[in-house]
Design a protein that fits this description.
The chain is flat. The longest helix is centred in the first third of the chain and has 42 residues, at 4-45. It has eight helices and no strands. By secondary structure, it is mostly helical. Helix content is 79%, strand content 0%.
């Protein structure tokens, strides 16, 4: 049986941890979206040199663990004279990792729009910007939405790794309580509930957005 008095006593700690998780996740995901959008545009436009740089970045980002990236930012960069706070390292780490996944999702959406639709838009008198806004982007969003939502959820779950650089997020609170009180089941229960409270609304919103932007099935 769970010790409900213990849960009632320490639940506020998980609330504080949830705010830290959300703070890091929101700014990290925003950075990932910006990075991914720039990289996807470079890849789609096939810009020389920059396209190769983006390809190298994506491979490095997706094939190295977030924990290693955080250690490099938090412990490695100070050796080179760059000292950042743990919060900044966590945000940049999530943005660096998430940018590569967002880039691939956005690129797939942009490239899924047939070239003939662009040509038809030009024949109707649309310029490049009008074609992009009214023809390409709406269809790209439809294709990219499932991957985009999955990446958002993935990055929020990956934020649990930031406890390794002493950030008091949800995972940090759970490990701290288990180490001090040995109430493992109660701590894990509060950890799971906290993540469900954060992630379930995002998952439901993602499902709604997928249906909302799914023009292809209409």
């Amino acid at each position: 049986m769970l010790d409900w008095s213990f849960i009632e006593r320490y639940a506020p700690f998980f609330v504080n941890g949830a705010w830290m998780t959300l703070f890091i996740s929101v700014f990290g995901i925003a950075l990932a979206i910006i990075t991914g959008g720039i990289c996807a545009a470079i890849q789609t436009a096939r810009i020389p040199v920059l396209r190769q740089i983006v390809a190298v970045y994506i491979e490095i980002s997706r094939n190295t663990p977030l924990l290693v990236q955080l250690y490099f930012l938090y412990f490695g960069l100070p050796k080179l004279g760059f000292v950042w706070s743990a919060e900044m390292c966590a945000i940049i780490g999530l943005g660096f990792l998430g940018g590569s996944y967002m880039a691939e999702s956005m690129r797939a959406g942009l490239q899924a729009v047939p070239q003939i639709q662009r040509e038809n838009a030009y024949m109707l008198g649309f310029n490049r910007m009008q074609t992009l806004v009214h023809v390409v982007i709406p269809q790209a969003i439809s294709v990219s939405t499932p991957g985009f939502v999955a990446n958002v959820i993935f990055l929020i779950k990956e934020s649990s790794v930031v406890s390794a650089i002493a950030l008091a997020d949800v995972m940090y609170m759970a490990k701290d309580l288990m180490g001090i009180t040995y109430n493992t089941y109660e701590s894990l229960f509060m950890l799971i509930v906290t993540y469900l409270i954060i992630l379930l609304p995002i998952s439901i919103l993602g499902t709604w957005l997928e249906r909302r932007f799914d023009y292809a099935r209409r």
